[in-house]
Amino acid sequence: MLKKLFLLSLVAAAGMLIAGCQEKAQPDDRLKEYVDLWNDKKFDKMYDAYLSTSAKETYKKEDVVKRTNDIYEDLAVKDLKVKFKKPKDEKEWDKEKEAEFPVTISMNTLAGEVSYDETVTLKKQKKDDEENWFVDWDPSFILPDMEEGDKVGVESIPAKRGEIYDRNENPLAINGEAFQIGIVPGEFNESELKKLSSLLEMSPEAIQKELGQSWVKPEYFVPIKKLPISERPLALDIIDLPGLYSKRVEARQYPYGEATAHITGYLGKINAEKLEKLKDKGYTAQSLLGISGAEEVYEEKLRGQSGQRIYLTKVNGEETPVAEQEVKDGENISLTLDAEMQKKLYDQMKDEVGTAAAVDPKTGEALALVSVPSYDPNEFALGMAGDKYDKIYNDPDKPLRNRFYQTYSPGSAMKAITASVGLKSGKLDPNKTFDIKGKRWQKDESWGGYQVVRVFDNDSVVDLESGLKYSDNIYFARVGLEMGAEAFIKGLKDFGFGEEIPMSYPIEKSQISNDGKISKEIQLADSAFGQGEVLMSVVHLASAYGGIINDGTMMKPVLLKDEEQGVWKKDLLTPQQSQLMRTNLRKVVSEGIAGKAQVSGKEIAGKTGTAEIKAEQGTKGKENGWFVSYDQKNPEFILAMMLEGVEDRGGSTHTVQVAQKFYSNY
Questions:
Q1: Residues 6 or more apart in contact with residue 389 via CB below 8 angstroms
Q2: Which positions carry the signal peptide feature in this UniProt record (predicted)?
């Protein structure tokens, strides 16, 4: 019995010894655990396990956890970092009841970075028969200087969008005003709905939809439609109706309207898909952004950066700043475009379906880029009714399509490039003649039923000059075959086929064929005179002709005025070969197929082309007519023009006549 008591005494003593050796909780260790949870935004656990009794009595869990989460979400808080350094010197905390430690709190918000120092107080308390250190929480842990009862405010200061000008500072897209037409429902007479519908060019259903929104009350002003400032007489007629009012609001304006629509694009509301992609760049559901054209391409330059201010409103009404990001207005940009030239070219083409590009061969600057039919970007910027948009969208002539961006079969406009490739490669002797009889030709019986067809058969002995003057398909098919696929493909690659067009405004790249190869003789023959699978944009075609007449140097196409000019391709021809091509291109107009391009006082030179779009040889299909031209007396620009559906209007001659009218009036 004595032995048992002795052993029990030893066990008890050992237990007391072990308990005495266990380290007591230290406040700095406890704060380290708390800071780790803080950085992980685990506010629930921070509240439940680490807050002092007095803090919990003062602040309910909702006041701490939910409010912190809500504020951080509203302020788009990212990269929250709370830093705490344990003291180097050990301190005896056994006899202390409180401990204070400095921490640094930093975060990124929608108004920029916030960083501040704070003091965290820990109190020694006994919970569940255990003594530990607990945090005396304070609202300043959420935001600097925040106190109980403070309200968090956010103010957004919108940036002024940059404007777009042409090379002569003519405005293409500017910040202006519009009339916002609206209805006060309590004053509106339903019997006037039909008349209002007619004046606004909106369906009655569209108007009623706006009035039927959940937030609408009888005394509220309900926006219905924006009208251009130029429509002041119409606005006055509308507000004569009972319950109709107007006010001036900010609006994007496009002074040249349809003439420059595909270049400028327009400003519109962001959709859900784009918002998902751009929300990290400061866009919101209320943001406007460039939808197409230069407004979209140069969005980053134009949009600027809205200013943001985060502040606390104290109980006494005073405001305390937390963070502020200064507003940065968008950058104005100038294009190389000549807006007046653009308008004249558009006016000449506006009843057609097609495209044109005027490019300076010496600099690569785009002076005009036309796509027809067009649309009024002002209507889109002000907000277009759904039924009117549907009408434009479903128009068979596709006015929303940007045709100077796209590639097409160049037809015989390709022949000047084929000739240049042959001359440069040494495989084309301009004086060599082919004896060609009749309008049809094939190399041999291996071609089966396929034949190359030419338009004129007046020449039986054809050299480069007559081949260009009369756009002889058979001549160029034979030139292509003699050159061979390898030399032909190499030459086209030298002209930029198959590579991205080096222009800040995106243009589809040209192709030699669907797979970049030419594996059959018939395909080579067709490609040499611009059929086959060869595709080019009107911009690339104008640039390529620029290289031909510019002693073999093709400049990079440029649209931004401050964009660095530079050579895209060089040594495409020797100066002597370039002179020969200039002479022949002039003869195409003065003596050949493009005689209707003659203009008094000018020496128009160029090359026509008809691209046949049909399923098989021998059938009739759609034709696109090309004319690439310039004035040899003053070669300030190459004009490449393509008009669709010319098969019943004289083919490419129709395009020649449209271009001639432009030159006559320019």
A1: none
A2: 1-19
CA angle 643, 413, 494 (to 5 degrees): 125
- Per DSSP, the three-state class of 366 is strand
> What range defines the domain where residue 482 resides?
342-391+402-665
Please check whether residue 391 is in contact with residue 375, taking contact to mean a CB–CB distance below 8 angstroms. no
DSSP state of 121: E
pLDDT of residue 617: 52
- Indicate whether 618 belongs to any domain: yes
pLDDT score at 19: 43
> Which residue bears the tokens 């569940």?
128
Q: Which of 480, 458, 479 is nearest to 469 (CA)?
A: 458
Neighbours of 650 (CB within 10 A): 14
Nearest to 81 by CA among 105, 116, 112, 113: 105
Question: How far is 532 from 476, CA to CA, in rounded Å?
Answer: 13
Q: Which CATH number goes with the domain that contains 127?
A: 3.10.450.100
The confidence score (pLDDT) of residue 23 equals 59
C-alpha–C-alpha distance, residues 423 and 465, integer Å: 13
Domain-embedded: residue 78 = yes
Residue 194 lies in a domain: no
Segment 252-274, tens digit of pLDDT? 999 999 999 999 999 998 888 88
- Number of structural domains (the chain) is 2
Residue 181 lies in a domain: no
Which residues in the chain land under pLDDT 50?
Answer: 1-22
Residue where a domain terminates, one of 116, 147, 178: 147
Task: Write the CA distances from 233 to 199, 236, 307, 564, integer angstroms.
Answer: 11, 5, 37, 46
**Cβ-Cβ contacts under 8 Å for 419 (sequence gap 6 or more):** 428, 464, 467, 468, 476, 479, 581, 584
Q: What is the pLDDT, as a whole number, of residue 282?
A: 76
SS (H, E, C) 440-456: EECCCHHHCCCCEECCC
pLDDT for the residue numbered 619:
55
Residues tagged active-site: 412
